[in-house]
Write a structure and sequence with these properties.
Blueprint lengths: L2 H19 L2 H9 L6 H14 L8 E2 L8 E2 L4 H14 L5 H31 L5 H10 L2 H7 L7 H16 L3 H17 L4 H17 L4 H22 L15 H21 L4 H19 L15 H6 L15 H28 L3 H20 L5 H23 L1 H11 L4 H11 L22 H4 L5 E4 L4 H7 L3 E2 L9 H10 L2 H10 L4 E5 L4 H8 L4 H6 L7 E4 L7 E6 L2
Parallel strand pairs: 3-4, 3-5
Antiparallel strand pairs: 1-2, 5-7, 6-7
Length: about 575
């Protein structure tokens, strides 16, 4: 075994030991009680449970929500597959309930190891160092956002998207046919999982086209990319959409509306590269313009693509719940203290990336690759600040890749002391300094609601009193829906996901007067009411609709047709039985 392979193996083992043992007892206790990072993780567990329990491959409905129609999800079996695979492997050795929890515990750190391995490969294309894997691991372990995203229990799709993104970059950095295949397959996988990185993926595709336009020597790279993306996106469509519904159009998940423009673009670009690479720059430019016009023309045939994001949700839902979901709003909307803490490391990383790009331009070594990486980091930082906070984790993922060759070069040229200083002063280890500045100089803004550990509304013990009741239909506040499904045997009227139309009837009940709500509860055959006062929409009902049913019962004005269920002392969930 070579020194580099030995270092890689030992580092990844060290990483897994650290991540598995980091807060082990708390982490396992949380998973054992189904207290996961957020409701998306809980829904992933439920989706995989239903799939492995016999639900159809193309049946993405959660049939226990919004019965009898079910709650429609916009996710992919591709993102369900890793968790399902680990569960299938473990099932012969453990009882089914324990198998689920072990799989949820194991998967994210294993994905973290994959991320580190690929990230080190990307860094090595920029500056080879036998310590790249060690450097990127140390940077990772000092970045709380990445630890959270790959920490035990985090089975949502964001970590898969980070892996897909850096794999696209790795393939694009290699100026050969194989690299193009890697980039194309990874892009198809990312689009099959979801669209959160769509602007960055547009950027990468544009970069490949422009790179070929300027330097046709990369024709093999672009050809491989086109072939892989063409085949991969068809495979992705067949994973996400049943053949009988292949013409169904969506704008929040992969469908024929996205696939046809992609097929037109990849086919057109392949033809252009194949037949005009030896032609003049003008001819290649005309070919690129024609490919772009073809993509636009095909895209115009699908009106769904012109609909706004989350078009399914009403202004009322935004007012009462969605408008307070932080990750869907830009960083600029948050208090200045949080802006400073988040942007500190990202802005330094952008400066490092731009500086490395300048040096690459001067040395004429890896200039194209540094340009792409810096542009991606700049765009991700801008998207975090101006578009959605959820992109932040991908910005941090690219930032530590930018830092790895930078620190590696310092380590090689100046020694370990200077490398450590660079990491401490400029890298993610400087984040505590940003937080200290915020805590010292920026006035604190009181939290609007309680989240996480500050409210006992998520773990299975919090639902103990509800779980003991006979199976029935529960009308919960939106934030409580998924956890109710995971921690009890009951059905719920609605979850918070934007395709779940059950919230319309749920809100009709909650907005009614207590007298009218009693009639609706009987009509809809609701058995129980459950809510947590610390969740987002309950205070909003109290604020905007003080006479509504939910506002009244959440402030202690309980009508006679509801019977309160005594709750455990450590629970903040209020439960009422609807008298028949």
């Amino acid at each position: 075994m070579t020194n580099k392979k030995l270092i890689t193996t030992l580092t990844l083992c060290f990483f897994l030991i650290v991540l598995f043992t980091y807060g082990y007892f708390d982490a396992w206790a949380n998973i054992n009680n189904w207290k996961l990072s957020d409701s998306d993780d809980a829904m992933r567990v439920l989706e995989v449970r239903s799939w492995l329990g016999g639900q159809g491959f193309y049946d993405f409905l959660n049939h226990r929500a919004n019965p009898p129609w079910g709650s429609e999800m916009h996710w992919s079996r591709l993102s369900d597959a890793p968790l399902a695979l680990i569960e299938v492997i473990l099932r012969p050795f453990f009882p089914l309930p324990l198998t689920e929890k072990i799989a949820v515990f194991l998967l994210p750190p294993l994905l973290g190891a994959i991320f580190l391995y690929i990230a080190a490969k990307v860094a090595d294309t920029l500056y080879w160092s036998k310590y790249s894997i060690l450097i990127v691991t140390i940077l990772f372990l000092n970045c709380s956002m990445l630890i959270f995203n790959f920490g035990v229990g985090r089975v949502d799709h964001h970590n898969l998207q980070s892996i897909a993104l850096i794999t696209i970059i790795l393939g694009a950095f290699k100026n050969d046919f194989k690299g193009g295949l890697v980039a194309g397959v990874a892009l198809a996988a990312s689009l099959t999982i979801g669209f959160e990185l769509l602007p960055i993926e547009f950027l990468i595709v544009a970069w490949l086209g422009i790179r070929w336009l300027i330097n046709p020597d990369c024709a093999k790279l672009v050809k491989g990319f086109c072939i892989a993306l063409f085949i991969g996106i068809i495979a992705g469509l067949l994973i996400d959409i049943a053949p009988s519904k292949i013409l169904t159009q969506y704008n929040d998940s992969l469908s024929i509306a996205q696939v046809m423009p992609i097929l037109a673009g990849t086919f057109g670009l392949f033809i252009a590269v194949n037949f005009t690479s030896q032609k003049s720059l003008i001819i290649r430019f005309i070919a690129m313009v024609l490919v772009g016009l073809l993509v636009i023309l095909v895209a115009l045939q699908f009106p769904i693509l012109r609909k706004p994001l989350y078009w399914q949700i009403s202004p009322l839902f935004v007012k009462l719940w969605f408008g307070d979901v932080g990750e869907t709003f830009p960083l600029k909307n948050f208090p200045l203290s949080l802006q400073f803490a988040v942007l500190g490391f990202l802005l330094v990383s952008n400066i490092v990336g731009i500086w490395q790009t300048y040096l690459a331009f001067k040395s004429k070594n890896n200039f194209e690759n540094w340009t792409l990486l810096s542009l991606i980091l700049i765009c991700l930082t801008a998207m975090t600040y101006f578009f959605q906070m959820r992109v932040m984790v991908h910005a941090f993922a690219i930032a530590i890749i930018v830092f790895t060759p930078f620190v590696g070069k310092i380590l090689n040229q100046r020694g370990i002391i200077w490398a450590l200083l660079a990491g401490i002063v400029l890298g993610p280890t400087a984040t505590p300094f940003h937080v200290w500045v915020v805590d010292t100089f920026v006035p604190k803004t009181p939290a609007k609601y309680k989240y996480g550990d500050s409210a006992n509304c998520r773990a299975a013990p919090d639902f103990a009193h509800l779980a003991k009741l006979k199976k029935g239909l529960v009308a919960t506040d939106i934030s409580l829906g998924v956890e109710t499904l995971l921690s009890t045997h009951h059905d719920v009227m609605a979850t918070h996901f934007h395709r779940d139309t059950g919230r319309n009837e749920l809100y009709r009940i909650f907005l009614s007067t207590p007298e009218k709500a009693g009639e609706l509860l009987k009509t809809d055959k609701v058995d129980y009411i459950a809510f947590c006062n610390y969740h987002t929409e309950v205070p909003n009902f109290q604020k905007y609709y003080p006479n509504s049913f939910l506002a009244q019962i959440s402030t202690g004005h309980v009508p006679s047709y509801l019977t309160p269920v005594p709750k455990p002392a450590n629970s903040d969930i209020y439960v009422f039985v609807v008298k028949k």
